[in-house]
Amino acid sequence: GDSVTQMEGPVTLSEEAFLTINCTYTATGYPSLFWYVQYPGEGLQLLLKATKADDKGSNKGFEATYRKETTSFHLEKGSVQVSDSAVYFCALTGRGGGGADGLTFGKGTHLIIQP
Amino acid sequence: NAGVTQTPKFQVLKTGQSMTLQCAQDMNHEYMSWYRQDPGMGLRLIHYSVGAGITDQGEVPNGYNVSRSTTEDFPLRLLSAAPSQTSVYFCASSYEAGNSPLHFGNGTRLTVT
């Protein structure tokens, strides 16, 4: 079945450091790929997405490129802030033809930014 | 501008008790789903619905029932709670299944003793 692998952390960085969170996937067909972010005590929010190979999703300074040849969707940000501290989830569309059986999520990466 | 509303926020049950977790959305989304979040496991799909009157099982459906009588509401029922159901439960909706982004509620933290 489909699966998503990402580092779990915690990942601790200093403010203004460069961030990379790795995400690789296994899937049949051509899934869409997502990054979601979860702040403490809240539900997940969509951060960015890409729907086909070589697409780049971007939002709030974060970027990720859909790499089909390496089955990866790594999340990057050039200069992190304390407010970026959260748990980040990589995900892909489900096994069904229309993705009706939901998203497959990675286990989440806990990011801590120190001032 | 409520989005996805889940109630209650916290709940403690004894083994064998039943309860319903409520979920409502005001965005006229056709697709709704329930996930559970456990440490080290990420999010796992319990049940989902692609429209009123239609439900289907996800990855971990055992011990849970759902129904979808209206577009807005998608309650999750625990028939006989077990300690293994201690988790944080999230309801999510989207315009349609697949590429549409999921909108999540703030979760219900359930403890079964």
Largest interface, with counts of residues having CB < 8 Å to the other chain, equals: A-B, 27 and 26 residues
What order do the SSEs of chain A take from the amino end to the carboxyl end, as H and E? EEEEEEEEEEEE
Number of distinct beta strands of chain B? 11
- End-to-end Cα distance of chain B, whole Å, is 36 Å
Strand content of chain A: over 45%
Strand-residue proportion of chain B: over 45%
How many distinct beta strands of chain A? 12
**Would you tell me the overall average pLDDT of chain A?**
91
Global Rg of chain B: 13 Å
Number of helices of chain A: 0
Global shape of chain B: globular
Helix content of chain A: under 10%
Structural class designation of chain A:
mainly beta
SSE topology string of chain B: EEEEEEEEEEE
Note down, in words, how this protein is organized.
The complex is a heterodimer of chains A (115) and B (113). In chain A, strands 2, 5, 6, 10, 11 and 12 form a six-stranded mixed β-sheet that branches. With 115 residues, chain A is mostly beta strands. Chain A has strands at residues 3-6, 11-14, 19-21, 23-26, 33-38, 44-50, 56-59, 62-65, 75-77, 86-93, 103-105, 109-114. Chain A is globular, with a radius of gyration of 14 Å. The mean pLDDT of chain A is 91. Chain A is built from no helices and twelve strands. In chain B, the strands form two sheets. In chain B, strands 2, 4, 5, 6, 9, 10 and 11 form a seven-stranded mixed β-sheet that branches. Chain B is globular and about 35 Å long. Chain B is an all-beta fold. In chain B, a hairpin with an 8-residue loop joins strand 9 (87-94) and strand 10 (103-104). Chain B has strands at residues 4-7, 10-13, 19-25, 31-38, 42-51, 54-57, 64-66, 76-78, 87-94, 103-104, 108-112. The model of chain B has no long low-confidence stretch (mean pLDDT 93). Chain B is built from no helices and eleven strands. Classes of the chains: A mainly beta (115), B mainly beta (113). The A-B interface holds A 4, 8, 32, 34, 36, 41-46, 49, 51, 89, 93-94, 96, 98-103, 105-108 and B 4, 31, 33, 35, 40-45, 48, 50, 56, 58, 90, 92, 96-99, 101-102, 104-107.
